[in-house]
Amino acid sequence: MSIKSILLWRILPGITLAVACFVGYLLQHEQPLGLLFSIIYPLSKGIFPPAIIGHGKMKGTLEVPDDLSPQPRPRNEMFLTLPGSGDLMPQNGIGMCCRPTAYDDELVYRSTLWYLLLGGRHIDGAKLYLNSKAVGRGIREAMRRGVRREEIFLTSKIFPTHFGYESAINVVQSELDDLGLEYIDLFLLHFPSSGPLPSQCSKQGKGPSQCRKETWQALSELRNKGLIQNVGVSNFVVKHIQELEALTDVAPIANNQINFNPFVPEETMETVEYCQGRNITVTAYMPLGGSHHRYLVNKKLAGLSNKLGKSVSQIMLRWAIQSGCAVIPGTGNRKHMIENLDVYEIELSDDDMKQINELKYDAKGYMNVDMSFLD
Q1: What is the model's pTM?
Q2: β-pairing, 281-285 with 253-259?
Q3: How far apart are alpha carbons 134 and 185 in whole angstroms?
Q4: CA–CA separation, 172 vs 156, rounded Å?
Q5: Would you say 268 and 368 are in contact if contact means Cβ atoms under 8 Å apart?
Q6: What is the model's pLDDT at position 278?
Q7: Which residues are annotated as catalytic?
């Protein structure tokens, strides 16, 4: 048998069958895309995914001592005031996504507990991350040790594949059940739409705009019932925001969480300026600019780091905070948590801010997904 025949009749069918089985495995899950991410992220680092081999087997975040009590909150802590409720959101938080340790329930539990006991209070999660039960367990253990629930600011999100009035209500209730909590401080629409992926709403023949509006209406009603305290968006550009602003008798847009750092394109800066001009708070994910710019940032900010006696990462976080944003760097490392919480002690001068702003002129090839292409 020729090599061509072997490829055509034996290897190719085997690959096709394997792909079909994997897709079927994903589609059985409530959050197929979330399950895919939970497999890909660990594999990209050469780690077996907990979603396949089981949780509690991954190395990473250290165990939290049983006798560790809550430490004081950071000195000079800064907050953003959310419109509509007046709630205060700490400008420094922790993201529970997009690293291998974020997909092992035991390490997520430890990370959440460490962060709260070290004085942090802002936790950013999402239904898509598939770790809400572990986050909730960490929060409840911190509360048992003396951290008050009203001090904790918890964010979650609904992915567009679950947009729609009834679907949104079910997602929020499911998230509360997973967390084991009575309310969520901020609930976001994770993206403007799911693109080619079908949603509960689109299956009824409704377009992306109508699905967003129905979801916003549902979340507004849940806010009135006290199940969520504030409603916001994520990855929205100006046209999507204006669409929701035109609605009446609904919750105000409290927050827009977007990819924000010195390297983002002009259209992202326009979105930030629009939000801040409309009293919509902004949360920056990827505030450090991503690994592809790490060498440039370390090189350009080495002098500033030496002058301030702070790490380059701390300086970048402080830049975002002084730009009026909240930050949610993700880590399961206790030492990094302490370092991140220390950024309130830094003060960047106008010249320092200008130097960081100008990093974009030395950067090449920054990857940014323009969400304006979504209807």
Answers
A1: 0.92
A2: parallel
A3: 18
A4: 9
A5: yes
A6: 97
A7: 129
